[in-house]
Amino acid sequence: MDAELTALATAGATALVQQMVTDGWGQVRDRVAGFFARGDADDEEAVAGELEESRGDLTAARDSADAEAEADVLAAWRGRMRRALRADPAAAAELRALLEELSPRAEREGRGGDVYNTLNGGVHYGVVIQSGSIGEVRNG
């Protein structure tokens, strides 16, 4: 399998695991189940169940600060995505479209979200630099 599809599988699994703990999980679960089922309604239901089980594992891992268990969830879905892409290289375009849907709008536009800075306490004297992006900074 070429490096591009491996990277795509990794990006897909990472986005999936990140979405497992969001409010929009139900919609994401259904879209991802559809991706893996490739039109088979029975498979779609089974995959949705597996996704829910993984979500439970991930939530438990986070609650107990078990980084290894979190990594296991990610690795399992990365492997599954690699196998899906290997079996059907045309699925790459569908996965790319799904990743585009899942990425936050600001990220797609090439900028981060809103940032709010609050300073409390006494008077502060000195240089303050605030920027969303600083290309190359050198001191001296």
3D structure, described in words:
The protein is an all-alpha fold and 140 residues long. It has one domain (3-108). The protein is built from six helices and no strands. It has helices at 3-19, 25-37, 41-63, 67-87, 91-102, 105-108. The model has no long low-confidence stretch (mean pLDDT 83).
Which SSEs are present, and which pair or pack?
Blueprint lengths: L2 H17 L5 H13 L3 H23 L3 H21 L3 H12 L2 H4 L32
Helix pairs in contact: 1-4, 1-5, 2-3, 2-5, 3-4
List keywords for this structure.
mainly alpha; 64% helix; 0% strand; 140 residues
Oligomer: single chain
Per the principal axes of the C-alpha atoms, what is the gross shape? Answer: elongated
Structure classification: mainly alpha
Report helical residue fraction: 55-70%
Write down the domain tally.
1
- Estimated share of beta-strand residues: under 5%
Low-confidence stretches: none
Encode the helix/strand succession as letters. HHHHHH
Q: What's the story with the biggest beta sheet?
A: none
The gist of it:
By secondary structure, the chain is an all-alpha fold.
